[in-house]
């Protein structure tokens, strides 16, 4: 039987999720809305109840032509003649399951939960019918947060499987809901590698109308744009910078909320820069208010510059809240390669959710790429890499975080969405002499992301050009004698350009953007 894994429902009979509703009604409603596979999961019922409930569900799923898979209990699957079973890493091992089912349910689907490349390769090589990859996000239905792997973890597993010629279908599981389903499907993609579907629990089981919730998820999945080279921008569009003034004008007009969880060094400077370019900053380090702030339609900056154990917890909460609301998140992994604690914090943040932009200096991006030597603080150290090597690194990191734009700042900035990579040769050396010039760039890009969601690469490029050309212009002012007098002049110039980006477009002619070409 060819199984459609697009929308895989895992049941939950606990009072917190199911409430006092009838399990069979909720499942049938979900199927009517578009659920394509059902897994019956009940960790507490006794065997008689499991068999009773499973056979009631089986009547419904059969009527709708949807496979029913039983979690863990192979005996229950055999008793009711279910289409399959699903086992976790702590349940009976795959080969034992196969031996048992060979005679009683020879065509059974056998799914296996996996949270690492090793587990996935082993299960696929041993003949699992499909893999459930997770946990993607922290979720109230799964308390064990050790196995949270984020989109990057899912992508890593998928890529390893496919590069080993293992085509086992894969669904991801863990905290998937309507606000993040497109992101997880998009961000776990890498070239032609993609998930076959998503597994959800509470997004359907706890929904007031499970049918509508399922239909909504199916619509979101169907609406997902295919990411391919042909879909990314034409080179003309990138080097023709006439879009930039329009992008700026829209930011000024919309005044997006810029929620900054930013280091304690640059709070005021970042807030002033956000105001100068037309944003509305709020510097809040309290993750508990992130869900309310996310409702206001702005974007979030996670800047790890002065990370502490408490602030790390707050970042994780805020990232989940913004992902759930479907609002953009920018990560600035300041100094992430400087200490062991920062390296660990980086991993926690990277697996806490999804990012639209990751911006860092060379040492920071190299740490994410896994190629960095020891960083000596928060500033960039002189590099041994050629521009070409840096560009390839930025592109690789962007590919790995599918759907994410990566910016490596420096004298020449490199921006990539994994498909197209550009060099930006604007800016001034005084920028490198002002602490937080990288951090504030994150704040400015995030403001643009809030308004220009349809194209993150263009939004990032517009923000970067405004930021750097303003800096260049500021240095030409008479009173500028060094980085100290430069900073207020830079904020003034940002403000002046942002207020009338369209009336005088001559400034954008100073944009120095070049497309990186692999063949050169
Ligand atoms: N020598 C330079 N010439 C032109 N622009 C520069 C130069 N140095 C830095 N910049 C610009 O300054 C901004 C910040 O980049 P940088 O790489 O210094 O960030 P950073 O090291 O993260 O800074 P911080 O940690 O102080 O926030 C970017 O827009 C970058 O293009
Ligand atoms: C100097 C400094 N230390 C931690 S964050 C920060 C600001 C620049 O990244």
TrEMBL record:
GO BP term, example: thiamine diphosphate biosynthetic process
Pfam families from the UniProt entry: HK (PF02110), TMP-TENI (PF02581)
Residues annotated as domain Thiamine phosphate synthase/TenI: 7-204
Keyword RNA-binding: no
InterPro entries: Aldolase_TIM, Hyethyz_kinase, Ribokinase-like, ThiamineP_synth_sf, ThiamineP_synth_TenI, TMP_synthase
Keyword Cell cycle listed: no
GO CC terms, sorted: cytoplasm
Keywords from the UniProt entry: ATP-binding, Kinase, Magnesium, Metal-binding, Nucleotide-binding, Thiamine biosynthesis, Transferase
Pathway this chain belongs to: Cofactor biosynthesis; thiamine diphosphate biosynthesis; thiamine phosphate from 4-amino-2-methyl-5-diphosphomethylpyrimidine and 4-methyl-5-(2-phosphoethyl)-thiazole: step 1/1; Cofactor biosynthesis; thiamine diphosphate biosynthesis; 4-methyl-5-(2-phosphoethyl)-thiazole from 5-(2-hydroxyethyl)-4-methylthiazole: step 1/1
Cofactor(s) listed: Mg(2+)
One function term, GO molecular function aspect: magnesium ion binding
Family: In the C-terminal section; belongs to the Thz kinase family.
Function: Condenses 4-methyl-5-(beta-hydroxyethyl)thiazole monophosphate (THZ-P) and 2-methyl-4-amino-5-hydroxymethyl pyrimidine pyrophosphate (HMP-PP) to form thiamine monophosphate (TMP).
HAMAP family found in the cross-reference section: Thz_kinase, TMP_synthase
Name of the protein in its database record: Hydroxyethylthiazole kinase
Organism annotation: Microthyrium microscopicum
């Amino acid at each position: 039987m060819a199984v459609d894994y697009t929308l895989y429902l895992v049941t939950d009979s606990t009072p917190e999720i199911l409430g006092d509703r009838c399990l069979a009604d909720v499942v049938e409603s979900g199927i009517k809305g578009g659920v394509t596979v059902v897994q019956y999961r009940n960790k507490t019922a006794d065997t008689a109840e499991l068999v009773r409930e499973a056979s009631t569900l089986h009547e419904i799923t059969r009527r709708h032509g949807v496979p029913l898979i039983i979690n863990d209990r192979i005996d229950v699957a055999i008793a009711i003649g279910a289409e399959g079973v699903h086992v976790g890493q702590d349940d009976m091992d795959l080969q034992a399951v196969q031996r048992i089912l060979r005679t009683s349910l020879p065509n059974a689907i056998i799914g296996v939960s996996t949270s690492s490349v090793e587990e996935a390769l082993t299960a696929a090589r041993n003949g699992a019918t499909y893999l459930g990859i997770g946990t993607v996000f922290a979720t109230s239905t799964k308390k064990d947060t050790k196995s949270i792997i984020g989109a990057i973890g899912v992508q890593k597993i998928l890529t390893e499987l496919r590069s080993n010629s293992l085509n086992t279908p894969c669904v991801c599981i863990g905290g998937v809901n309507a606000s993040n389903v497109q992101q997880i499907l998009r961000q776990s993609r890498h070239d032609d590698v993609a998930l076959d579907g998503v597994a959800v629990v509470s997004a359907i089981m706890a929904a007031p109308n499970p049918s509508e919730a399922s239909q909504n998820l199916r619509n979101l999945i169907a609406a997902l744009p295919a990411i391919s080279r042909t879909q990314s921008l034409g080179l003309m569009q990138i080097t023709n910078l006439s879009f930039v003034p329009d992008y700026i004008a829209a930011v000024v007009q919309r005044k997006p909320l810029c929620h900054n969880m930013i280091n304690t060094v640059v709070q005021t400077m970042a807030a002033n820069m956000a105001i100068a370019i037309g944003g509305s900053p709020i510097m809040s380090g309290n993750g508990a208010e992130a869900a309310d702030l996310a409702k206001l339609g702005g974007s979030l900056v996670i800047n790890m510059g002065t990370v502490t154990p408490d602030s790390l917890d707050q970042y994780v909460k805020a990232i989940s809240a913004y992902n759930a609301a479907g609002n953009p998140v920018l990560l600035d992994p300041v100094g992430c390669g400087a200490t062991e604690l920062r390296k660990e914090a980086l991993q926690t943040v990277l697996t806490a959710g999804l990012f639209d932009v990751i911006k860092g200096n060379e040492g920071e991006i190299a740490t994410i790429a896994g190629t960095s030597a020891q960083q000596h603080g928060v500033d960039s150290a002189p590099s041994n890499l050629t521009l070409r090597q840096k560009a390839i690194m930025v592109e690789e990191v962007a590919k790995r975080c599918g759907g994410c734009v990566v910016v490596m700042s420096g004298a020449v900035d490199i921006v990539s969405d994994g498909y197209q990579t550009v060099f930006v040769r604007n800016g001034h050396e005084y920028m490198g002499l002002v602490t937080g010039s990288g951090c504030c760039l994150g704040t400015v890009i995030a403001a643009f992301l809030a308004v220009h969601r349809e194209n993150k690469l263009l939004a990032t490029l517009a923000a970067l050009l405004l930021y750097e050309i303003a800096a260049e212009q500021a240095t030409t002012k008479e009173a500028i004698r060094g980085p100290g007098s430069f900073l207020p002049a830079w904020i003034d110039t940002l403000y002046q350009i942002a207020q009338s980006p369209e009336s005088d477009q001559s400034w954008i002619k100073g944009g120095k953007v070049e497309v990186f070409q692999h063949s050169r």
